[in-house]
Design brief:
Helices cover 30% and strands 26% of the residues. The chain is α/β, with parallel strands linked by helices. The strands form 3 sheets. The chain has a 9-stranded mixed beta sheet with strand order 11-10-9-12-8-1-6-7-13, sandwiched between helices. The protein has a two-stranded antiparallel sheet with strand order 2-5. A two-stranded antiparallel ribbon has the order 3-4. Helix 2 packs across helix 5 and helix 3 packs across helix 4.
């Protein structure tokens, strides 16, 4: 069973700054890290490989800096890594990124399952997995907390909902995005890290994927009109009193006055 995991290299969120004058987000220097939600997808792919055999493959859209994220996955036991990189991809919105990854998967051709984290922590759009499934015209299940079984070209998964979960059966190949409840990601071994340094990362450009720049990169459908940091939180109120009972009475009165209770 061949599993492809779609990952994204994300910056350290705490170091991101907003330049309102230039109307842009200023990303920190450095290689960044694997999107945390994607780490659960990588772990699930490795578990499926260990149970059913086959290959575990990672694929990402990015720049040369993204190689570090791909090698982190290789260090965990992933077999192959593909980097989709081209200046024409710069500035791609989630739908455009989905189109690029779709082209990469079509070129790869052979896979049984595509996994991804439920969303990236830098954009929080949660659009890419669904866009890939639509581009490939294959079944999808988003926000999956458990893969119950994979057999006979079908997968049974638990898909989270607001009220609990649904049990869904999918024909394979399919796209599945996962939530953090699905597993506990492993850590790389020293041997894995050393081996990852020597593994080759396959790079595909826009021309390799048959993309001409239409609806990707600067030609994405989404346009940014304004960039601004979130408003600061209002200051909280400290309730004081001589005794805990007095503080509790004051808190109760305030909650009642505001019709909270």
């Amino acid at each position: 069973m061949d599993v492809v995991i779609l990952i994204k290299q994300v910056p350290e969120i705490a170091l991101i700054k907003v330049d309102e004058t230039a109307n842009e987000v200023v990303l920190p220097q450095g290689p960044g890290t694997v999107n945390p939600f994607d780490e659960f997808a990588v772990e699930e792919g490795l578990r499926l490989k260990e149970k059913h055999g086959g290959k575990c493959i990672v694929m990402s859209v990015g720049t040369d800096r993204t190689e570090s994220a791909l090698r982190n996955c290789l260090a965990l036991g992933v077999d192959e890594a593909y980097l989709l990189s081209d200046e024409a991809f710069n500035g791609s919105d989630p739908q455009a990124t989905g189109k690029i990854l779709t082209a990469g998967l079509k070129k790869l051709a052979t896979y049984d399952l595509v996994l991804a984290g439920k969303q990236a922590i830098d954009s929080d759009s949660a659009q890419v997995p669904g866009a890939v499934a639509a581009g490939l015209d294959i079944p999808q299940a988003m926000f999956v907390k458990k893969i119950e079984s994979v057999a006979d070209s079908k997968a049974v998964v638990y898909r989270t909902t607001e009220d609990g979960f649904d049990v869904v059966e999918l024909n394979l190949p399919a796209v599945i995005s996962v939530v953090k409840e699905i597993n506990e990601p492993r850590l790389p071994s020293l041997k894995g890290k050393m081996a990852a340094k020597k593994k080759q990362i396959t790079k595909w450009s826009a021309s390799d994927l048959g993309l001409d720049g239409n609806e990707i990169g600067a030609n994405s459908g989404t346009k940014t009109t304004k960039v601004a940091p979130p408003p600061p939180r209002p200051k909280g109120e400290i309730i004081e009193g001589d005794t805990p009972e007095e503080v509790a009475d004051k808190l109760f009165s305030k909650l009642r006055d505001n019709q909270v209770i």
